[in-house]
Design goal:
The protein is mostly helical and 329 residues long. The protein has a single domain, classed as ABC transporter involved in vitamin B12 uptake, BtuC, CATH 1.10.3470. Helix content is 79%, strand content 2%. The strands form two sheets. A two-stranded antiparallel ribbon has the order 1-4. It has a two-stranded antiparallel sheet with strand order 2-3. Helix 2 packs parallel to helix 13 and helix 3 crosses helix 9. The protein starts with a helix and ends with a helix. 41% of the residues are buried.
């Protein structure tokens, strides 16, 4: 019974932290408990959180993508440019296709040419950003159609539209990860790529497909972000990749791969955005906010490394215990 409680505690730690944080802020800060502020937190969590869903798949597999911020900037400026010259829904479809192409470009080089994800996505971090500057000539592009702005700023039954999209995509991503052959392949890739190959899984295609999925999720984030601002610029989303990775790791997804939760990523996105909202309410200087968020990033990574090291020690101890029992028998 105590073991079951311990597992439950570990699984829902980020939810517990969010509830404690919200309770403390609601009690101590009247502005925080304003319904509009809480709904705004949900809204803002979606813009990075949607990409964090794809990043969860990527990190579970054992890789990560540093190019998503530049990818988002590229797709956002292309989206606004297209909206000014063609049908809105056609523009959205083309942006989703562009997201798939960008993800496939990363995934193909990583999976088939076997170059490190760090090197590849660091390179495309600069390529995608430079492309955004070239397309716009370094200028911000604007599109202020009412329905387009509704996607990023509107609400359905008081619930922010971006958060509704976030929840729908999270539910789909969670079902696929936990209840499909593909999802088990993703988790298996993080645990042992060699075992996956032996069992007949096309590991190269699976790895490439995960980067394609991440590109698709980033495309949705790009559309909603451009809608929120009614504009897009080549310099936007500068720290986007760090925010997305931090949300995933805060949610308990292991950097070592093979373990993660879409639900916890959603909760971590809300928690991360809540901390940012809290600092804004207390008028904390932007540079100090960056220092604090950097410390959160380091804490999340350190906790994951300690957790991984602890797991290895426990497995080693269990193996030793088994060996001792075999010797005595």
């Amino acid at each position: 019974m105590s073991g079951a409680r311990k597992i439950s505690w570990n699984k829902h730690m980020i939810l517990l932290l969010l509830l404690i944080f919200w309770a403390a802020m609601i009690i101590t800060n009247p502005a925080f408990r304003n319904v509009d502020n809480l709904l705004n937190i949900l809204r803002e969590s979606a813009f990075t959180g949607i990409t964090a869903l794809g990043m969860t798949y990527c990190i579970i597999m054992g890789d990560f993508d540093l190019s998503v911020g530049s990818m988002l900037a590229l797709m956002a400026v292309v989206c606004v440019r297209l909206l000014n010259i063609c049908n809105m829904w056609l523009a959205f479809i083309l942006i989703l296709i562009l997201g798939v192409i960008c993800g496939a470009f990363n995934g193909f080089i990583i999976a088939y040419l076997k170059i490190s994800a760090f090197i590849v996505t660091l390179g495309t971090f600069y390529i995608f950003r430079a492309a955004a500057y070239i397309i716009t000539d370094g200028k911000t592009v604007v599109y202020s159609d009412r329905f387009f702005m509704f996607l990023g700023n509107g609400s359905i039954m008081k619930m922010p539209v971006p958060f509704c999209v976030f929840v729908i995509l999270a539910a789909a991503a969670s079902v696929i990860l936990r209840h499909s052959v593909y999802g088990r392949s993703v988790i298996g890739m993080g645990n042992s790529p060699k075992a996956c190959e032996i069992s007949g899984i096309n590991t190269k295609f699976t790895k490439m497909s995960i980067f394609i999925i991440l590109g698709g999720f980033t495309a949705v984030s790009a559309i909603l972000t451009a809608s929120r601002q009614a504009s897009a610029g080549p310099g936007m989303a500068g720290n986007f990749h760090f925010d997305a990775i931090t949300m995933v790791v805060l949610g308990g997804t292991s950097l070592a791969g093979g373990e993660g939760s879409i639900f916890n990523t959603v909760i971590a996105a809300v928690f991360y955005t809540s901390m940012s909202s809290c600092m804004n309410l207390y008028h904390i200087d932007t540079q100090w906010q960056r220092i604090f968020m950097g410390l959160v990033l380091l804490a999340a990574f350190s906790a994951d490394l300690l957790k991984h090291a602890g797991g290895q020690m426990r497995r080693k101890r269990n193996l030793n215990n088994i060996g001792e029992k075999e010797e005595t028998t």
